[in-house]
Design a protein that fits this description.
By secondary structure, this protein is of the alpha/beta class. The chain is built from four helices and five strands; from the N terminus they run βαβαβαββα. Helix 2 runs parallel beside helix 3.
Length: about 130
C-alpha cells in the first residue's frame, strides 16, 4: 500500500523534525514539515497531504486560520486536521476539532492519523 501523506506544521523546527523522523521511521507515512502557515499553504499545493497536523499557536498565522485556509483550497475540503497544543484539556476532542497534547507522544499521533484516515495500511519492510 501507498504511504499516507501527512503535513506537519509547527513554528518550532525541533518539533517538526522529530515528528517527521518518527512518523517516517514507521514506514507508513511520508511527511512534509513546515514552520509557518504561509510556507505550509504553498507546500500543500505540491505535496497534496491526506491529513494535516498543525500547531495551535504560531506567529503570523495560527493553526485555526491555517486550517480554514487549507480547507478552502481546491481538493482539500474534507481533509482531516488535528491540532498540537500544550493547552489541551482531557475531553476537548469532539467531532469537529481534534487536539493532540504537547509534549507529543508518537503513538497518540499515529492513532489519531489511523482513526481519521480509516485504518492502518501495512507497508512491506524493506
Amino acid at each position: 500500500m501507498e504511504k499516507r501523506r501527512i503535513l506537519v506544521v509547527d513554528d518550532r523546527p525541533v518539533i517538526t523534525r522529530a515528528l517527521k523522523q518518527q512518523l517516517e521511521k514507521t514506514g507508513r507515512f511520508v511527511v512534509h514539515a513546515e514552520n509557518s502557515g504561509q510556507a505550509a499553504l504553498k507546500a500543500a499545493r505540491q505535496f497534496k497531504p491526506e491529513m494535516a497536523i498543525l500547531d495551535v499557536m504560531m506567529p503570523g498565522m495560527d493553526g485555526g486560520e491555517l486550517k480554514q485556509r487549507l480547507l478552502q483550497m481546491p481538493g482539500f475540503a474534507g481533509m482531516p486536521v488535528a491540532y498540537l497544543t500544550a493547552a489541551y484539556r482531557e475531553g476537548e476532542n469532539n467531532d469537529k476539532e481534534l487536539f493532540i497534547e504537547k509534549p507529543v507522544k508518537i503513538d497518540k499521533i499515529i492513532d489519531t492519523i489511523d482513526r481519521q484516515l480509516g485504518g492502518s495500511p501495512q507497508v512491506a519492510a524493506s
